[in-house]
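Exercise 7. Predict the structure of Epoxyqueuosine reductase from Flavihumibacter stibioxidans.
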Amino acid sequence: MTEIQNLSERIKSLAAELGFFHCGIAKAKRLDEDAVRLENWLNKNYHGSMSYMANHFDLRVDPMKLVPGAKSVITLLMNYYPDTRQQNDVPQISKYAYGSDYHEVIRTKLNELLFRVREIAGNVNGRGFVDSAPVLERAWARESGLGWIGKNGNLIHKGAGSFFFIATLITDLDLQHDTAFAGDYCGTCRKCIDACPTDAILENKTINGSQCISYFTIELKEMLIPGNMQGKFGDWLFGCDVCQDVCPWNRFSKPHSEAAFKPIPGLLNMSSGDWEALGEEQFRKLFRYSPLKRSKYQGILRNLRFIQTTGPSSP
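Solution. The predicted structure, encoded as tokens:
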């Protein structure tokens, strides 16, 4: 085994020790084809009011602009599939938000991974990214051989489905690069497309983000949700898992073992009345370390009223 191969294997072992259940390595390069797709997507305004999606375009498609001298892009997957789920008769929370905010959990692990890599490889220039920075993490996961991008826009791993977070570590290390995932195992399946309540999943693996329930319940800051969405949200209070729940590949999902992702006590059984009675102060206290804080309590109440209302909420 060469020195490069040995270092690459040691990095993957370190990732596993930190709780990442898959790790792949790709050669740092400009993602030209993905750049074209992203530009077309933005031009069609599929990002809605998420203006940050249009920022730093060059950084998104070229890792060398994020880490000068970058040679390798390490992609890591962390499972969040829960062993217990909510009852069907309560306002629904996307499973990724049952526990602590994954940004903080994974960022800590990425920093630890980079620290350990520097211990064995010396002065390494690298940066870790978790969803909140201009990185096309699903494209890099594909380039790292971890899976394919499904019709619902999620990365799908043949042995684990799609209920996982994706983290990226860009470094100037010369590592052994995995072969990009070339297959597409969605086939003729249309379950996610047909099941999407708001028709946000289009053909050719295109997602109209501005029509997604997650967009309306998390990203949209206006206090009125468009009336033409009335009756389409079901019981989704925060986020939406419909396209993942119906995906046949998620039959391979297994419960995670990350303590930080365990459900916040009481969350799974919270009724509409419980949410209404919570109050601003208790919400902040209970969800201080939760992804739900992103919507704020007023946003949660807006969403709750919207899914409870039978008539249009706005013109």
